[in-house]
Every structure is written in C-alpha cells, then in structure tokens.
Amino acid sequence: MSLLEVDDVVVQFGGVTAVNHASFVAESGKVTGLIGPNGAGKTTCFNVISGLQKPTRGKVRFDGRSVNATPVHRRAKRGMARTFQRLEAFGSLTVRDNVRVAFDIHRGVTGMIRPAAANVDALLERVGIAAYAKERADSIPTGTARLLELARCLASDPKLLLLDEPSSGLDETETDAFGELLRDLAAEGRGVLMVEHDMDLVMAVCDVIHVLDFGEVIASGPPAAVRADHRVQQAYLGYSDEADVELTMTDLAAVDETAEIPAVRTGAEL
Ligand SMILES: Nc1ncnc2c1ncn2[C@@H]1O[C@H](COP(=O)(O)OP(=O)(O)OP(=O)(O)O)[C@@H](O)[C@H]1O
Ligand SMILES: [Mg+2]
Q1: Closest C-alpha among 162, 226, 152 to residue 194
Q2: CB-count exposure of residue 223 (10 Å: 0-12, 13-18, 19+)
Q3: For the chain, does the N or the C end have fewer beta carbons within 10 angstroms?
Q4: For a substitution probing ligand 1, which of 42, 46, 260 has the most ligand atoms within 8 Å of its CB?
C-alpha cells in the first residue's frame, strides 16, 4: 500500500475541468515528481490532497486510510506537510521565530513540550538558512523564503512532504544542495511529492514522475522513461518560445484534425 493514493480525482471549477480523472501514488522513502505545463492542475491536486479543495469526485487515501472527509488540520496532524507556490511565512517575524512558531503549533497539537532552541537552529542549519536566522522573513530572498517554508514543514516531522515549486528562486549551487536534502529526507523514510518546473532537478532527484496535462495523468514512471515518452514530449513542446508554439499547433493539427488547439502556455521546459 502506498503512503499516498490519489484515485480517479476530478475537480471542476464551473466549466473548467482542472483535474480530470487523475490517479497517482507517492511512496514512503521516495521522491515523486508531479510535473506538467502551466495550468495542468498540479496545484489543484495538492489542494485536494491537503484538504483545501473538495474534489468533484474521486478519493484520496493517506497512510492506509481515506482522508476524503478529513479536514486540513487533521491531515496535517496525521503527517502531511505542505509548502505553497505563494509564500506563506510570517513576514514580520524573524526566520528563527517562524520555525519556532511552526514547532509550537505542532507541539500544541500533540501536547508535547516547547522545543529546545537547539532544535530550531538545527533545522535552519539542515535546510541551509542558518545565516538568515535573525533576519525578518519579509526581507530574505525568495529562494531562502522557500527553504524557510520547508523548515517550517519539517518542524512537524511529517510522513509526507508536499512541495509546490520549491526550487524557484534558488541559484544552481543552492538547487544542488536542495536536491541532496530531498534525497536525504526520502532516505529517512519520508515520502516527498514535488511539483517543480526545474527539469534538471526533477530528473536528478525523482524516483518516479507523474505528468499532468490538461488535468489528466498522461505518463508515470522513472525519469528516463518519462523523458522519452511521446505524449510528454508533445505536451511540453512549444513552451520555450513563440515560434515553437506555432510549430506545435501545426504539428498537432496534422496529427489529429479533431484535436483542440492547446492554449498558449509559458514558462515550463523539459
Ligand atoms: N479556484 C479556481 N477557480 C477557477 N479556476 C481555477 C481555480 N484554481 C485553478 N483554476 C484553473 O484550473 C486549472 C489548473 O490550475 P492549477 O493552478 O492547478 O495549475 P498548475 O498546474 O498548478 O499551474 P502552474 O504551473 O501555473 O502553477 C487552470 O486552468 C486554472 O486557471
Ligand atoms: Mg501551480
């Protein structure tokens, strides 16, 4: 049984089908990638998994039990932790206090004692932001703020980490260190499910990748197989520049005259 099982989930917003019968799993001890072009439904899947979005249909099982009727805070208590694409730290608090608060919230829930300051500092050290401990969270670079979010998640000692575009804002060296940290977190037995546009990082650290396009899972497998998949290449063609978009539309029309012209999307690359 997998740590997380997303089973035939559909999410509709009015006439928009954001997630279309998506099924995928994430395992303990593995880094799983959830990738796809802009608007493919990745964040909506995260919202369904974490309990912020009720699915139109479908089921989510976590750690052996259905969580369909479980509210957000109880999913967190059972071992899910999540970062947001939009940053969520307390801007007026220091980096250290942000992590301390995250510890406090978790201890409050579990009824344990306050953390030693050493725990907070060890966590800052672990994610590589100890140098920023005394800075206000609203004054640190974006990449550092994302690592702060990860530290806040780790304060709850989660079984499953849901990371939405965690590497944006990190430079190359920071991204390499971040990739190693993800591998270490998986080696500790945690499940990591990561939405990420940096394909070098995804291909380097993920054990398994699920690809979403227009809300559907179009491929699942190890990095090499996913990279070689024809549908994946087709879904990603044309995101790098305008000329490619034109070419892709023409190509798709030639392949299937009934195919809808895809909306122009930007930013993702494979
Ligand atoms: N609350 C909402 N109401 C209406 N439509 C929504 C809502 N949230 C998302 N959508 C739509 O659902 C689709 C999927 O959006 P989602 O944010 O899940 O994509 P994504 O894969 O995370 O994209 P990105 O890579 O840009 O973050 C998009 O068409 C989006 O416009
Ligand atoms: Mg998103």
Answers
A1: 162
A2: middle
A3: N
A4: 42
Cβ(75) to ligand 1 under 6 A?
A: no
Q: H helices within 111-238, ranges in order?
A: 117-127, 142-154, 172-187, 199-205, 223-228, 230-236
C-alpha distances (whole Å) from 216 to each of 12, 18, 20, 210, 211 are 13, 9, 5, 10, 8
pTM for the structure as a whole = 0.85
Amino acid letter for position 103: F
Decide: 53 and 82 in contact? Cβ < 8 Å. no
Domain ranges of the chain: 29-55+66-233
Domain 29-55+66-233 CATH class label: alpha beta
pLDDT in tens, 116-146: 666 899 999 999 999 999 999 999 999 999 9
CA of 231 to the centre of ligand 1 (A): 21
